[in-house]
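Problem: given the chain below (190 residues), write out its structure.
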Amino acid sequence: MNTPHSTLHTAIRECADAVAATASGIRADQLGDRTPCEKFTVAELLDHFGETLVSSARAARKEPQPAGPAASGTSPAAVAESANRAAEAWSNPAAFEGSTEFGPGEMPAGLAAAITLEELAMHGWDLARATGRTFAISEDAARVALGAVGEIAEGARVSGLYGPPIPVSTDAPAFHRALAASGRNPEWSA
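Solution.
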């Protein structure tokens, strides 16, 4: 992804703020609800999200990732805080330099940032839709998210993380195109 780090960080920050706002409003009675990401309930998505965002902040700071799975039971408040910490960690221009450990292993730091943005945007939307909230980001952030989704879509489909792309109009908003490229139906509702 050839997006300047300042543009990518701005989109990460905007999506992190939207995730924090969404997560902060999740009620206990919504934790068992389904999400657009078929393999996750709201609670399971919060667990995944919390683990990924903590890992992302470590990746931005070039810290090693711990061995073994993270603890489950991530609260909505913890996800909101993790989103803010990840965005803060990616605010340092040095975070985008060289390589770092993230997810399955070592990768270019810029790719780890793109994956962070994709996670914030796609799973943030998943949480918002599942809990009846709006995931509001600017068209600029949506275009950067579309680029991040495009960068990882092929590998994500091969590994089963994305479903087949959903057809949408070429003049659809950038965020709808990003959702569709990730295999999500932009019209999904609980």
